[in-house]
Design a protein that fits this description.
Elements lengths: L5 H8 L8 H6 L6 H4 L9 H4 L11 E5 L6 E5 L5 E2 L6 E2 L4 E3 L2 E7 L3 E4 L4 E9 L1 E4 L2 E15 L10 E8 L4 E10 L1 E4 L2 E8 L2 E4 L4 E8 L1 E4 L4 E8 L4
Parallel strand pairs: 5-7, 6-8, 7-9, 8-10, 9-10, 10-11, 11-13, 12-14, 13-15, 14-16, 15-17, 16-18
Antiparallel strand pairs: 1-2, 3-4
The structure holds zinc ion (ZN).
């Protein structure tokens, strides 16, 4: 997966159907290239509120990024913008992408990707910092170095997913038989599974977590449900 060259990624993008980049047009900011224009990349500055929806409480202004070419992980402060990988020097695309119809191919970005409710990733792979999944993933692998956000209606095969953090949005309900591992898990909807969490498990008001859960720290808001066998290891 990490072997593909950058050029092939950009070519792959040219077939992606997406809405026009209204935000860029309003701002009078020309897209980086003609090819990118078909992808409707969103402006970096708007990514925080537009695609990931909820502002993370765990990640203020420092971002841990993973290079999609060599998998080197590094930390940047402030807004995420196109940046060179400190190790392999690949210029890493930081634009946000929207998939809102059938699509086949690879998408790689250190920005965010949103698969909208009508979006179907038929085949290929996704590498993103954050992925918001409202639609379907059929036969594709997902690698999320930041947060995977599962929305109501999301359909995917959990064994093709590797993500650092997980957010289950309000109204979403998922049952997984497979054991899952994340760094942080935030439950505003309902989740039943066997879960191993390196750092923090948060259950929001109206959310419910069931199953078998081990984690370092737990936070359950008033109105949040936790019906699970717990293994709380504390902060090491
Ligand atoms: Zn690299």
């Amino acid at each position: 997966m990490a072997k593909r060259r950058k050029s092939s990624v950009v070519d792959g993008f040219s077939t992606l159907k997406a809405v026009r980049d209204r935000k860029a047009a309003e701002d009078g900011m020309p897209p980086d290239s003609a090819k990118d224009a078909q992808l409707a990349p969103r402006e970096e500055a708007s990514s925080k509120e537009s695609l990931t929806g909820i502002v993370s409480t765990a990640l203020p202004s420092k971002h841990r990024l993973t290079c999609y070419e060599c998998e080197y992980t590094f930390v940047v402060s402030g807004a995420i913008r196109t940046t060179g990988c400190p190790k392999c020097h690949t210029q890493l695309d930081a634009k946000d992408y929207l998939i809102e119809s059938d699509w086949t191919g690879d998408v790689k970005t250190i920005g965010a990707i949103r698969v909208a409710a009508d979006g179907v990733l038929k085949r290929g792979s996704i590498f993103a910092r954050d992925l918001v999944l409202e639609g379907s993933i059929e036969d594709a692998s997902l690698r999320v170095c930041g947060r995977l956000e599962l929305c109501p209606g999301a359909q995917f095969d959990v064994k093709t997913v590797h993500a650092q953090d997980l957010l289950v949005r309000a109204g979403a309900q998922f049952v997984f038989t497979r054991k899952l591992s994340f760094r942080n898990v935030d439950i505003a909807g309902e989740l039943k599974c066997k879960l191993q969490v390196e750092e923090l498990v948060t259950v929001r008001a109206g959310g419910h977590l069931r199953g078998n859960v081990s984690g370092a720290r737990f936070a359950v808001e008033e109105g949040g449900g936790l019906t699970a066998r717990l293994d709380i290891r504390g902060k090491e």
